[in-house]
Design a protein that fits this description.
Strand content of chain B: under 5%
Number of strands of chain A: 10
Number of helices of chain A: 8
Largest sheet of chain B: none
Distance between the termini of chain A: 37 Å
Number of helices of chain B: 21
Structural class of chain B: mainly alpha
Oligomer: heterodimer
Largest sheet of chain A: 6 strands, mixed
Shape of chain B: extended
Number of strands of chain B: 0
Strand content of chain A: 25-35%
Order of helices and strands of chain B: HHHHHHHHHHHHHHHHHHHHH
Strand order of the largest sheet of chain A: 6-7-8-3-9-10
Mean pLDDT of chain A: 86
Largest interface: A-B, 42 and 35 residues
Mean pLDDT of chain B: 81
Low-confidence stretches of chain A: 1-9
Chain lengths: 253, 489
Amino acid sequence: MPETQTREAPKKAVIIRTLGLEKSYGMGDATTYALRGVATTIFRSEFIAVMGPSGSGKSTFFNMIGALDAPTRGRILIDEVDVAQLSAVELAFLRCQKIGYIFQSYNLIRYMTALENVTVPMTFAGVVPEEARRRGLELLDLVGLKDRWGHRPIEMSGGQQQRVAIARSMSNNPKILLADEPTANLDFKTGQDILEILQRINRERGVTIVCSTHDHRLLNVCDRIMWIRDGLVERVESRENIRIKLGNIGGEA
Amino acid sequence: MKAIIAQRQVALGPARGIQLALSGMSYRMFRSAVTIAILALATAFLVHMLVYGLLAGQTERNAYTELSRLRGFGEQITRLARADSPAKIVSTLALGQPARLAEYQRWAKRDVGEFARGKAVAERLARVRESLTELPPTAQAVLIGDLTPDELLESLREPAALARFNKKLAELQLGSAAINQPELVQLVTSEMEKLQQLTTAIATGHEEAVRGFSQHFPNRTAEVVAAEPPADFGNTLSSLGYSQNGNLAELSEFARNARDERKISELLLEADVRSSVARELNLLPKDVDLPTTLAYSQDAEHAVWLSGVLAQVNAPKHLNGPRIQAIAEVFKHRARLEEILGDRVPSAEGGFLGLPERLRWLVLLSFLVCVVGVANAMLMSVTERFTEIATIKCLGAMDGFVMMLFVFEAAIQGVIGGVVGLVLGLVLAALRGAAEYGGLFFSIGGIGGELLLGMLFSFVVGVLLAALAAVGPSWVAARLSPMEAMRVE
């Protein structure tokens, strides 16, 4: 295992590292930069919150580290392996087995029941249907929706749908969970539930969680916070160091 | 210890793909049904065009064959009574039905070589005539003027006229493709002379045969003789040099029908018959004619009534009810055949599935409609699922599997739509054919193979189109990175 030495936390193992990450859209004069050189390090089993105003490049950053989109320049190392080096087959394996995704708009498959949605990634991983069903029900139990396994997304509330999405993201026991504004479409109480579930997954299973949000309650849950602004990392702090500033609600910290 | 080790993703087999495609379709039952309906309509359209085209072509060909046979009987009876005209002899020589040529050769009393040379000239003459009638109208006006092509060719035998004609032809600068000038010159200067001699010899021979026939069966028309043929009828015909194409029983049946039809139309001219038929049919007496009367007499009761009316004016004894009904039946059948055919001579089989030319274009057009409809349906069903594709790619589906899923789904829909369309198209074609041609439409003997091929073709086209039309959009969708696909709306 390579030696990982960073200024902030010298002892921890690194799981995601980005080097000079840039992403631009358009060509020539019309080029707009979503990311302009993000260098960051995410440690194993930590819960890191990514904050920043809309259009700051948060979502783009998420798609990059989730290997969903290729950067224009720079490198992404997931557990010290350059994502650009991976073949399509290996990328599919990574997305299926090692990384779980949670989206702001849930992205459940409309015509499938909760259980079927949860077992889709298992199907792609080649898990036999009986096993997939058993594990799917366990995961639904984890998010408190065991009774509603046969319901379609349209029959469930936003919070329930997001919980199904969390169960789905956990279906192949991933090492990393990427949550892109998971609570943005939910009310206060439901958002709280979602965050608790995420925290539980992080504490009990040791899954690395990267969660972008506008929700300041996340500060109670996460280990570190990263601020992104105009396509650059503005600041990274441990939770202990920013607790004092929590009173400053309404600003951008 | 590394937490993440890159491995190859499990590849799912076609069986799993079909299973997922099927369950996906059953979830989206309504959308699939719409797609299948579009496919079915497109296939039905194609099947309908093909099957109807094939059957209509076959029906016309059958009608033509039967009419030609009937007309052949009529001509045969005419030839017993009257010698062919020179023009008729020349055109018959050029067309060259073996039976007729044999008759001519016997009547001409020439050796085989000379007869063959004469026949070759007749063929060349027909070619030149045809090339004259196919000239552009302006050239026709200059070269032919008010004459018919035959009159022109006749007049060109005079050297001065030929010289004028050649001059005009040179001025027109039509090129050698339009008219074969050396052939024409050779024809009019020397060959037409020979042909005329042969024609005259044939005509003389034919006249002798006609005379022999009327001496053998005096005081009776050829039709009457053929209707009730004496025992030596066949032998007499052979000894006079006539060929017997078709069998004599059929010939005499035709003659009997023709004789009786003639008799009935003669009797209809009688004022008493005319007025009672007019009353019965609720017509003006001047509108009473053979077709309307016979159409009315197809019914057994009406036929008996007509025979009663005819009996009052001393009709022949054999014109009883059943006989009249039979005549009406034959008459109607023949009228139907003529109606189907019109003036057209059905084109010979050839090209794609032996379809007539005008139908080939229609089939091509319906094929295009099919392509556009299916491509559109598939494009829609893939593009409206871009988000879903992006999601399952995030969850670990590989590009190939996404494509396989969509192509299988399209192929399954294609198969179902194809079967439904096949049935629908057949029913449509049958209904339309029945409306247009009646029972004659379903005499499919001889084209069963083509029909099956046509149906198979439409079915395969439907399935393949569906699958191929899904390949394009799903290829695009599968290759987009998941986030790009999710952004596409």
